[in-house]
Amino acid sequence: MTPLESAIAPTFIIFCRIGGCLMVAPGFSSERVPVRIRLYIAIGVTLALAPALIDTLQPGLRGADPLKLGAIIMGELTIGVFIGLLARLYFLALETLATAVAMTIGLGNIFGSALIEAEPAPALSTFVVICAIMLVFVTDQHLEMIRGLYLSYQTTPVFSPAAPESYLNELTRVLTQSYLLALRISSPFLLFGLIVNLAFGFLARLTPQVPVYFISGPFVIVLGIYGFSIVAQDFFTAFSGQFGSWLIRG
Fold first, then answer.
1. Which pLDDT score, from 0 to 100, does residue 86 have?
2. Which string of b and e fits 147-170 if b means at least 16 CB within 10 Å?
3. Is 167 in a helix, a strand, or coil?
4. Tally of structural domains, the chain
5. Fewer CB within 10 Å: N-end or C-end of the chain?
6. CB 159 within 8 Å of CB 145
């Protein structure tokens, strides 16, 4: 067997984990990124990491039968999708709370184009998620994702037995951290909506002759957009910093 032939199977195994991760990772998995471009990115990252990883995979693949090889491929795809899902949870949490903020300040019924997902979402939610994803690439956090993929071969080697309990614990931890982060940075708008709606509710009870609902709508929208423009920098800085810290710590 030539050196090239002996490197094909390990390289494909590496591609399975990297391709599975990029299939669901934030930014790379967007509906607006063509599938062919995603494939080229996955191949490029695989070829960049393969020289440093092939030597650790070749001994375990010698004499592997098709059944064992198929099990390894499915395991690597699962690990890659799991790693990408962990990163995407932060953006799913941000999108959920951004939708709640849009509803709170009266913009929940204004749907924009389906830019990130296949279905349309409130314009404010789409704007927030697009800005957060843009910051991932501007601050080179996508390179930290690739570094995390490389380091994952140390924490979760290819031929190690599956550990569903550890995966579930990690998923629970990241899910908790992501939603707590999204709730913390969105809490000023949620409190604003609660206070303003309560105030106008009491006002409507005190002056039933005045159509308070129609008066309060534009007022809440203008104040909400103005408040978001003031805290937008801190909003995105807090999210990007926390997400970047998680990528570095793993």
1. 92
2. ebbeebbeebebeeeeeeeeeeee
3. helix
4. 1
5. N
6. no
**Mean pLDDT across the chain:** 83
List, as one string, the DSSP characters of 103-164.
Answer: HHTT-TT-B---SSSSS--BHHHHHHHHHHHHHHHHTTHHHHHHHHHHHHHHHS-TTSPP-H
pLDDT tens, position by position, 78-89: 999 999 999 999
Q: Look at the block and give the residue holding tokens 């106008």.
A: 200
Token couple for 69: 């090889």
Mean pLDDT of the 124-139 span: 89
Q: Looking at this protein, which amino acid is placed at residue 134?
A: M
Whole-angstrom distance, CA of residue 94 vs CA of residue 113: 18
pLDDT over 90, % of the chain: 19
**What is the distance between the alpha carbons of residues 181 and 133, in angstroms, rounded to a whole number?**
16
Pinpoint the alpha helices (H) of the chain: 3-24, 35-61, 66-104, 123-138, 141-155, 164-206, 212-249
Top-confidence residue, 4 or 121: 121
Return the closest-CA partner of residue 82 out of 216, 174, 176, 178.
174
CA–CA distances in Å: residue 226 to residues 61, 128, 155, 189: 60, 15, 46, 11
Residue 32 has a pLDDT of: 80
**What's the domain range around 16?**
3-249
